[in-house]
Design a protein that fits this description.
alpha+beta; Arc Repressor Mutant, subunit A; 5-stranded antiparallel β-sheet; Beta-Lactamase
Length: 285
């Protein structure tokens, strides 16, 4: 919950645990803080483009006997924000946060000394832009080899907007506009599975001039309402493909596309690869 709030997501709420009065009190406090933070950021005129969707990513890194990165699964470069060729030049400790170095030094010594060594530890990875990614990892040696394999599953936060960092740091002059657009955005996200109302209908829902609605939305998010809605649908479709066994045609329908060909074209245009190219994790339902 605290991690979510740190990323700017104040919409997440915890459910009380009826078996623990103390835990219920803590949950109430956290939920209250999140509500107040959400209200305050909006009142102060901030557009809060918090992370909307999360996805579990299973990744693997292989090290040689000098603990230099030898190979990795395809998700690693994007996850750590490194060029793939650059990663192959790095030692494993160069992608770790400094607080994880002592843990790695201990594991490294044990792994080098014992071919049967196996450990489950929490490493904190540091991306090229210095973002921290905490992950529980398994560390072990390959049979009949000096190579070391590191497996982990981590939660990847997907930006709501490409310019999220830029927008979140800018204060707008008209606070009422910020409140309005925040509400419009939240309305779209809560109804992303449904057909998007026309801008005329949205303007009536939020009691605002249609031109002002379109112009203000584009001002804050640098895109149209329809384009924003479409991209959110495609992001959700992407997540469903990765984390469920739902057939692709059904995911297309869930995402608002009655024709799979149209979904395929929109998906490929957005992500530069087709839905069928995504490696699906059949263990996650």
């Amino acid at each position: 919950m605290l991690f979510e709030m740190a990323t700017g997501n104040f919409t997440l709420k915890l459910k009380p645990d009826t078996e623990s009065k103390e835990l219920d009190e803590l949950v109430t406090i956290l939920n209250t803080v999140a509500e107040k933070m959400q209200s305050l950021t909006t009142t102060l005129g901030f557009i809060n483009p918090h992370y909307t969707y999360q996805g579990l990513v299973q990744a693997t890194i292989i090290l040689n006997n000098t603990f230099t990165i030898k190979s990795f699964s395809h998700q690693i470069p994007a996850l750590l924000e490194y060029n793939a060729d650059k990663l192959l030049e790095l030692r494993f400790d160069e992608i770790l946060a400094k607080q994880s170095i002592p843990i790695w030094d201990k594991i490294k010594t044990e792994t080098a000394a014992d071919s049967n060594a196996f450990a489950v530890v929490q490493f904190i990875f540091s991306t090229q832009s210095q973002h921290l990614i905490p992950s529980y990892c398994t560390v072990s040696r390959f049979l009949y080899s000096d190579d070391i394999i590191i497996n982990f599953i981590t939660t990847v936060l997907q930006d709501l907007l490409p310019e999220a960092t830029h927008i979140s740091s800018s204060v707008v002059h008209n606070q009422s506009d910020a409140v309005l657009i925040q509400k419009v955005r939240e309305y779209i996200l809560k109804n992303v599975e449904n057909q998007l109302p026309t801008t005329s209908e949205l303007s009536k829902i939020f009691n605002v001039n249609e031109f002002k609605l379109k112009d203000t939305f584009r001002h804050f998010f640098n895109t149209s309402i329809y384009q924003f809605y479409t991209e959110e649908r495609l992001k959700k479709a992407h997540l469903l493909i990765l984390q469920t066994n739902i057939p692709l045609k059904e995911i297309a329908f869930i995402s608002g596309y009655n024709d799979y060909t149209n979904f395929y074209k929109a998906f490929k245009k957005k992500f530069s690869y087709s839905p069928s190219e995504l490696k699906r994790d059949n263990t996650i339902i």
